[in-house]
Amino acid sequence: MKVAVFSTKPYDRHFLDAANAGNTHHLVYFDARLSAETAPLAADAEAVCAFVNDVLDRAVLTTLADNGVRLIALRSAGFNNVDLAAASDLGLAVARVPAYSPRAVAEHTLALMLCLNRKIHRAYNRVREGNFALDGLLGFDLHGKTVGVVGTGKIGETVATILRGFDVRLLAHDPYPNPAVSALGARYVSREELFQNSDIVTLHCPLTPDTRHLVDAALLAKAKPGLMLINTSRGAVIDTRAVIRGLKDGTLGSLALDVYEEEADLFFEDLSDTVIRDDVFARLLTFPNVLITGHQAFFTREALGQIAETTLANIDAFAATGQAVHVVSSEKVVGRTAA
């Protein structure tokens, strides 16, 4: 099959080419994000391979279908950027990578948690400037603290497993409780109770209409004062403006983000020589108790290899049978969930 691959970086090409052993498929790489303007680049392709910030709304999907595309192969677990109803109407199959490497995201979550707590990012910059003062770098022991895990799929379960090694108390929230997380000693509670009693909350839920702005002003008003909030799931799970207000009034003690709800115009690009025009994001950068990474939690050799292999397996299966392995539909998700 001819596959148009959008939003590609050198590392994407390296791992996808390795997974496409024997050049079974003709992969055509585009640096550009998929959008209404770039969709015509997929002319004559039978499949499109897209990433998290590509636009796959009805207009884009219509253009793709009109040009002969039959499969949307996502290089991600999340599919909130796809209009699934439109894809169904147009006869387009949508496949994803449901569980590429829960450990990659889980370990990055713990790295953010530890770095934010012990102010490693600030200490690193101080030492490089010859400043060895410890003022402002005071942290706390994780031992004995209460950590709330929102979303207990594969990633949330892995985070909870790692946290048990720190001897923390675990609270969990998920509409579908995971017995493996309960077996770790976690207690499932309501969202409100979790925020009221947790010293740290880490988010691992997919972005759906039910989880959009799950963390809003009303929920933060009930949070334990000084809460540390970690988000490595999807940016729009939190209301960024409400979080900024929480940081300003002290409701939030600290914040770590690997995702941002308006990240599409920022992340995965080098903008060091430009002015960031997103005033909300720029405001976040002014807080000393905020740590941000640019959607890199998934970025390990193991995860990229698994993403490429599963993506090619979906394309292989569709080429052979007309049915991908990990199909997403507007009614249900087929395959194991990752978040």
Characteristic key phrases:
2 domains, 13 strands, Rossmann fold, globular, 12 helices, alpha/beta, 339 residues, 6-stranded mixed beta sheet
Characterise the protein shown here:
By secondary structure, the chain is an alpha/beta fold. The protein has 2 domains: 2-100 and 301-328, 3-Layer(aba) Sandwich (Rossmann fold), CATH 3.40.50; 102-292, NAD(P)-binding Rossmann-like Domain (Rossmann fold, 3-Layer(aba) Sandwich). The chain has helices at residues 10-19, 58-66, 84-90, 102-118, 120-128, 154-164, 179-183, 191-197, 217-221, 240-249, 279-284, 301-321, and strands at 2-5, 26-29, 47-50, 71-74, 93-95, 146-150, 169-173, 187-188, 200-203, 227-231, 252-257, 290-292, 327-328. Helix 1 (10-19) packs across helix 12 (301-321) and helix 4 (102-118) packs across helix 6 (154-164). The longest helix has 21 residues, at 301-321. It starts with a strand and ends in an 11-residue tail after the last strand. Residues 332-339 have low confidence and may be disordered.
| Total domains | 2
Shape by Cα distribution? globular
Distance from first to last alpha carbon: 30 Å
Secondary-structure element string: EHEEHEHEHHEHEHEHEHEHEHEHE
- State the helicity in percent bands: 25-40%
Q: Give average pLDDT, whole number.
A: 94
Order of strands in the sheet with most strands: 8-7-6-9-10-11-12
